Design the sequence.
């Protein structure tokens, strides 16, 4: 069975969705950059090994990345999943995990990379928003896209209501993408990912729409 290490920094709801999806994978460990992360307790409740590599304990990014990679590699995972991991990782780290480092981002990339995606989507007035699972490359939030889910932006949305709608989809597509990885369905070539066996639906998604 393949093995997975999940990296978190906070509440860990995506990590929880990965655990509860009961994927055919051994979750070897959950590693947090933040000793206070709520997700650590959830992982422990599921009897999953936890580790902390506290970002504050390292003088710079290189030292942190080195310590983190050592910790990850001690579990020899086939795949590393960032799930609300709030540190920017250096090029050397990212290249070391080429093709086996995934992230979930709360926007339809390449729109709204970075932070505060829901507020920025509302400010921009987009009618459709969503989330993206992608392989990680050195440029933050720009790696090859594996899958995306779109949701409508509703007239009364606040960043709280919009983020809740997007988060529901995050919890659905992240386990799905990891399942595809485990089933060897993902082919990564240059900046593109294809999914073998996927059924592509070519109907349009409109938001808003008028009846009749
Ligand atoms: C999620 O929206 C994820 O897409 C983003 O940070 C948030 C983390 O939430 N990268 P959680 O810790 O998984 O609950």
Sequence:
């Amino acid at each position: 069975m393949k093995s997975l290490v999940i990296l978190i920094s906070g509440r860990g709801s995506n990590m929880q969705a990965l655990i509860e999806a009961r994927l055919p994978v051994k979750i070897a460990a959950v590693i947090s950059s933040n000793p206070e992360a709520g997700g650590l307790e959830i992982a422990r409740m599921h009897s999953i090994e936890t580790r902390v590599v506290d970002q504050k304990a390292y003088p710079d990014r290189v030292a942190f990345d080195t310590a983190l990679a050592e910790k990850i590699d001690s579990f020899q995972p086939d795949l590393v999943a960032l799930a609300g991991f709030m540190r920017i990782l250096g090029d050397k780290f990212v290249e070391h995990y080429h093709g086996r480092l995934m992230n979930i981002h709360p926007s339809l990339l390449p729109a709204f990379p970075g932070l505060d995606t829901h507020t920025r989507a509302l400010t921009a007035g987009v009618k459709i928003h969503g989330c993206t699972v992608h392989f990680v490359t050195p440029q933050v939030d720009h790696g090859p896209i594996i899958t995306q889910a779109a949701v409508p932006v509703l007239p009364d949305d606040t960043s709280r209501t919009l983020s809740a709608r997007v988060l529901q989809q995050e919890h659905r597509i992240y386990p799905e993408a990891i399942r595809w990885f485990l089933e060897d369905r993902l082919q990564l070539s240059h900046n593109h990912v294809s999914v073998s066996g996927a059924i592509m639906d070519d109907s349009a998604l409109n938001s808003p729409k008028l009846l009749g």
User: Anything to note?
Assistant: The longest strand covers residues 128-135. The longest helix spans residues 159-182. The radius of gyration is 17 Å.
